[in-house]
Fold this sequence. Notes:
The chain folds into two domains: 1-18 and 182-222; 31-180, no CATH class. Helices cover 32% and strands 24% of the residues. It has helices spanning 2-26, 146-153, 183-221; strands at residues 46-53, 59-66, 69-80, 83-93, 111-118, 139-141, 161-164.
Amino acid sequence: MSAGIWQLGRAGEKHDLKAAFSAGSITEVLQQLVNDSEADDYRFRRFQLRGHYDPGHQILLDSIVEGGRNGYEVLTPFYTDGRIVMVNRGWLVAPADRSILPDIDVPGEERAITVRLNRFPVPGMRLAAADTKAVEWPQRMLFPLRDDIAVALDEPIPDYQLLLEADQADGYLRDWRAVDVGPERHYGYAFQWFAFAVMALVIYVVLNVRWNRQHKKLINQS
């Protein structure tokens, strides 16, 4: 029963995230970055920023699967209003030869971009810290923390990424979703757990009734 209730809670969280993502598409577009403490309140909100990319210090988020294929999401530093923020320019397939990195060059001239605020992706279980000691760029990282990226860049950055909107130039595949797994799956899991609980209760009752009958029979025979 506890597992089923937990799944219902997760379904509610996923439903709220999808609602926030939809709301972010129709609310006012903001013009300035927010602080880390405000990031959750502005999650999935759209921003229009002016600045320029830093093509020389890009990060490839490794082991991102899309359509059954392994690939990278491309994080590019964007300088705007005296700050640096990481812009996720989308997903591209990884070459079969892991020693070969994809060409992710991007012009560094000033431009305006429209983006959507989100947290950095996180794994189901974090096994080790990201390796930020490499000196060659672009760097490959596996689910880095904000501090990992800041150390690699030797610059402070906000504790969130900005997702480049699909209609913006110099991006890759951008099928942004609030959640990878919708609330429907959690409702299905909850039903299964509740069904298991009912089955366990029925088995418990049947076995105890049978045991009581056998026990009384033995008493009567004695």
